Amino acid sequence: MRQFLRDSGHLIRPAIVLIVGLAAFLLIRTALIPKAFGKYGHYDAAALDRIRQHPVSYAGQDTCVMCHDDQAKARASGKHAHVACEACHGPQAAHANADDPSAHKPALPDVANLCRRCHEKDAAKPQGFPQVVTAEHSGGALCTECHQPHNPHL
Amino acid sequence: MMIPGVDGFIYPNEGELQWSLLIVLYPYITGLVAGAFILASLERVFKVDAVRPTYRLALLTALAFLLVAPLPLQLHLGHPERSIEMYLTPHSSSAMAMFGFVYLWYLMAVLLLEIWLEFRADIVRMAQTTSGWKRLVYKALTLGSMNVSPAARRIDDKVGFAVTVIGIPSAFLLHGYVGFIFGSVKANPWWSTPLMPVVFLFSAMASGIAGVMLLYMVSMKAKKMTIDMPCVDTIAKYLFYTFVIDFSLEMLDLVHRTYEAGESFRSLDFMVHTRLWVSQVIVQICLCTLVPLALLALTQLFPFKAAVRRAMYFVSSLLVMVGIFAMRWNVVIGGQLFSKSFLGYTSFKLEFAAREGLFTAIGLMILPFVIFVVLVKLLPPWPEPEATVGVGHARP
Amino acid sequence: MELSRRDLFAAGGKLLILASVGATLEQITGAAPPSDAYNLADHWWGMLVDIDKCIGCGNCVRACSKENQVPAGYFRTWVERYQVGEDQQPHVDSPNGDIDGFPADTRGDVKSFFVPKLCNHCAESPCVQVCPVGATFVSPDGVVLVDKNYCLGCRYCIQACPYGCRYLHPETHTADKCTLCYHRITQGLTTACCEACPTGARQLVDFKNPKDPVHEYLRHNKVQVLKPYMATGAKVYYHDLDGSVR
To answer: Which of C130, C115, C145 shows the shortest CA–CA distance to C52?
Structure first.
């Protein structure tokens, strides 16, 4: 038995190398894994909070109508009732949240191109949707010369 | 609106390929590792004595390639510094998460252990006979034990045998999981098949065996030693069998796919006939499968002179190695050339001097041979003429 | 009436005591938490897309791009135009994802329609399944997200998504995709794409909210998901999706 141990004694050495390596790894592991990892599943729960911190660019129409009551009323009675303010006016959270909103006054929409995006005739658009071949429709005049954007139906 | 390199309709995010040349290289390298190790195990476990002269060579080849294997992956990652996360929080549902552990297991518990056990007698001898920094290196490699008595060596032999036995399924796992990484992606019909891990494995074995064959022949020529013909005859035989199985499996996949003609068939068929025509049909199938299979079959059926056989083995091995690389290319790149809408295709732009470019790939392929030369200088792969104790296995 | 300092202190002290008692009582009785508290367990998010209403204007693509700083050439959402002949073989295009609209096509001889696409926030997501480290995940409220501090950029999730909705962000070198505007929906806003959609073709839904109109909608309308045979548990439901849609 002693002889056997003497002949195989050298095998303990690679075993020691492996065990020491494993122990070192387990130590390092506890230091490096994010604290909130595994709280809800196999991921760092703190990521949910980080993602929620992303700044908002579109204020949402509920915010716009808080101040712009007149435009909201005009819109509500017309065909654009369900078109959100920022759908045409672009992201306005900076304007809405500013201490002085008039310092972040939004630029007027580019009517020449804006209205066409929705209302240019295209075979793929639903049949009942109001669409025209703009080149033939207005003879070059801007849409706003006849249509009031918040309540556009004539 | 025409996007350069795109034909038909692709989803807007599909224009650029996600996995490029380095991800073609990685399975190729681990395949060589697995194949070389299987060849070594032929002798050790299955007692195919004829290939004994290549036993140590195969182990060192496997190690040289294994050390390089993680590099293409690191270079490909968006954040290589975070790759340790695979060890910290491996996601048990992801085949890729297995990589870190399978790799470490195979490196430490199989290959390094087996090499240490095999070469111990030489290491101890060198630790006692060399001087200077070489002596320090060898002393470190002995791990502090100088016991190379015949009894100790017999125990080494038994343990080495056990390690090799464990090593065979470990080698299968090391490369098989790569096949599973592709084969389990249901979103990609070019990849998704249960045959994928098996095809990868057999092609890996073919490339590994061919690689050892080439290295053996080249090394013997370089050292001006005679090539052991029974050895290379046997290696060629196993190369032939392995390659026949590999080719059959790939043909089975092709025939099955063509017969069932599922939703993706037309799109994939068109892709093979156009974008993959050269790399798959001409290079992989005709030049690098049918030709070596024919050559090897001829050597099995008819007696040729030794010099002629050596030439046929050399050419076949070279073609097999190119062909298996082409197979990896066709799987990885091919799987990303078609749109998942099955309505269009994109193109692969091979860069040259970028992180994942051609020059990097060439460098990564040369590196294992450099490491191999260093290893061979450190650990003699053939018995030195004057050596007496503990060379090869401790068998009479 | 003149208030002495003493009276002032006495009154202030009484107020303070009243306030403290009130606050303590509120804590003990569990009065309603502040209105911005978001409870993960109360929500299960998805989206409803009505093909009949989509006009392909691209407002959603532009709004998403601005709200989330999506890098040019990559898409968290996009709109495809289908032109389907009688053989049901579609011709599809999506010029720059529809970020600038479609060139007008008034051809009336084929069936044509628009299909907005985005991450389907799959309940059994194959992209989450393959992530090797847990950098992408399904949140408890049903949104598939990427932790960009943890993602390695291995791109396996991009390969595994059957819908092509992921990409590698060219600046952060991490996987990126639609987050269902998580930063917005968790504070009571709707997603940027739904806000900007002029026709109501896109609607955010919360399946766990008993008052959400989706419950009534699903009782009366036929809906489909993209690639149902993939069995990913997709939570973006399409109304009137044609069989030719890929």
So the answer is: C115
